[in-house]
Write a structure and sequence with these properties.
Blueprint: H1 15-29, H2 35-45, H3 50-62, H4 66-79, H5 85-98, H6 102-115, H7 120-126, H8 141-152, H9 160-172, H10 176-189, H11 194-206, H12 210-220, H13 231-244, H14 248-259, H15 268-284, H16 291-304, H17 311-324, H18 328-341, H19 349-362, H20 366-377, H21 387-403, H22 407-420, H23 424-435
Helix pairs in contact: 1-2, 2-3, 3-4, 3-5, 4-5, 5-6, 6-7, 8-9, 9-10, 9-11, 10-11, 11-12, 11-13, 12-13, 13-14, 13-15, 14-15, 15-16, 15-17, 15-21, 16-17, 17-18, 17-19, 18-19, 19-20, 20-21, 21-22, 22-23
Length: 436
Amino acid sequence: MNRDRYDLPLTTASDRAAAHYRDGVDCMLSAWHGAEDAFDKAIAEDPGFALAHIGRARLHQLNMEGSKARAVAVQARELAAGASPREKSHVEIMAAVIESKPKVAVNGAEAHLDEYPRDAQVLSILLGAFGLYAFSGRPDHDAAKLAICERHARHYGEDWWFVSYLGWSHTEAGNLSTGRMLSERAVGLRSANANAAHGLSHAMFEQGDMEAGRRFLSQWMPAHDRQSFLHGHLAWHVALTLLDAGDLDGALAIYEKHIKPADRPYPPLNIFTDGASLLWRLALAGQTGLEAHWRDIAAYGEKYFPQAGAHFADVHFALATAMTGSDALETRLAQLEARAADGKLLPGQAAIDLCRGIRAFAEGDNAEAIRLLEPALAELTRIGGSHAQRELWEDTLIVAYLRAGRGEAAASRISARLDRRPSARDEAWSRQAQQN
């Protein structure tokens, strides 16, 4: 019987289909270009191979090709009738993700992993900044990611993918030295692994080792296929190090070359959130002349996220529409209120207050921005994403304090951050706070 890389049986008699499937899974787990082609080849070799179909459906979903994703998932379900119990369960869990049933997917994945702990694809959907735990609305999702990794660590040993995500999970849980050590080990185990490079970039950022992060990525990224879905996001990480150093022109050049919407082969959620957040950070730092970029990113958001529902996109939608003065923000806020009333807004009122606080800040009402953002930051983790992505809202609160003449409040926030890690940008804000 054919098996996957984790020695789990595959219901296909075709050795070639199994080999292509293993390649596709490795591309997904390493965030490397080629998964689509590999799964397509597996399906061509064995049209009845259910796992290859559900893998392809998942890629359609990540690229926001919803109708294709659902259609292929239906086909995978039908084909899974002749597969093993493990494969049937795998398909059902992935289909639940594609059908926007996150609670069903999480419960199913946790139970599945108790029986099949080496089903790495199922474990992977729970993890990451955009994983099911992160987008669950739970305030403890960073701890949940680490807990499930540690629960199943004995089944993986020095597996390059697992070490990548164990390191990432430690970093996001605040165990920075351990996270960095594991991420460095993962890069050593498999250099062609964007998830390991990404985790290491986060560890360096959280430690305030900006120069090391920029140097690492400048050496690593040339070998990374630019079509791989994390390429633009890793460029965003480079831009963060330049912003910390005060190099606004350099950060803007990265936006223009790697991030702004321009038929890029990255998932729309990455393009939109990276673009909106980097433009916002540039604006906070004093960069001018961004109006055309704001119009582009706002139009992209309205195209790919026209309705409330993906709450991480919704809070970034507020950034873009607040800066363009679009009426779409008021419509989006009404939709968020309706979802909250129906119990469907997983982060709760905090997501709405973050959006309203951003709007107040963009309108120059710093007192109102402070009133809304201060309590919302206590629940900020519930929007998901990473620490580095969420820091934008605290940055905004600090600048609102400074503009409102509340230097003592700004200094308190900045001091807590500097106790955690060095930052040239925070030190500059600290000097400004002392002059207020």
